[in-house]
Prior knowledge:
The chain contains 13 helices and 14 strands. It is of the alpha/beta class. The protein is globular.
Amino acid sequence: xxxxxxxxxxxxxxxxxxxxxxxxxxxxxxxxxxxxxxxxxxxxxxxxxxxxxxxxxxxxxxxxxxxxxxxxxxxxxxxxxxxxxxxxxxxxxxxxxxxxxxxxxxxxxxxxxxxxxxxxxxxxxxxxxxxxxxxxxxxxxxxxxxxxxxxxxxxxxxxxxxxxxxxxxxxxxxxxxxxxxxxxxxxxxxxxxxxxxxxxxxxxxxxxxxxxxxxxxxxxxxxxxxxxxxxxxxxxxxxxxxxxxxxxxxxxxxxxxxxxxxxxxxxxxxxxxxxxxxxxxxxxxxxxxxxxxxxxxxxxxxxxxxxxxxxxxxxxxxxxxxxxxxxxxxxxxxxxxxxxxxxxxxxxxxxxxxxxxxxxxxxxxxxxxxxxxxxxxxxxxx
Length: 382
């Protein structure tokens, strides 16, 4: 899980190694990083002075005196995190040890535009920061997962579907101005992929996470790091054309996209056309659990469509895991259909050891990814 050579031994890398349990002493760090003991000691002391590391207790001796143990203090640095959905926002504080605390969730409508969203985020994040500081923690920054394309270099939202007024909105800079904190904004599926990788599957170097909710998105982890692509659009499978979608118009302006037949919004529309009273993914899941045949069939078909697109991804990328997150991933017929299509359409070599399962880090997956990314990427360069 080594970062690029220019980041080896950075403060962020040292904190990652200690937080993950890969190292527990200065001697371990020197062996892991291949650096001189004096260089490692200087870096550790810098982090201790900042309150981001502590040394206490004694480890097992490998000859000579017993080493002092490194750990992340419980009252150390945190990043604030927000996971935005089309009709809700979840917020919390993420620690260097990878735990998520002080979580809250609020209903709102992202389609009302950037203004009301910015007001809500600024108010709730400011209050959250105050609570963290009152508990003696240092707030390092803010990580945001946004349900649409984001330019990672500028923090601007780029041409999101079904979101009037958001194109080129400077969410990062405006939120930083309102909160007085550095802010990082990225796509929500990217943040989920990072969160699930860090919390549940740190041993995997290559994985794809698909978020199946009102829309469809995916995040790619390659060599244990998020892969964003040249412009931040890597993993956007929602607008791949599929045969079953035929000439259906999509919110992106094209026709025949995966989103038009496999997203939560598409399933809700189809069920309403069949006379069923549904408002969102929660109602779809309830109908599937009750065995309602229309809902079960549509969810299973959505899984087959998603699996068809993913089969190309798996054959091309050859990941170790395909993880399914978002509200629709709670429906077993969808998961089973994705699994079946991958086994049917992929090369046996790519699926022999392929893990295909729902995410397991719960509703805070996106918060964990956004918080961890903020702690790592917003930390002052060293």
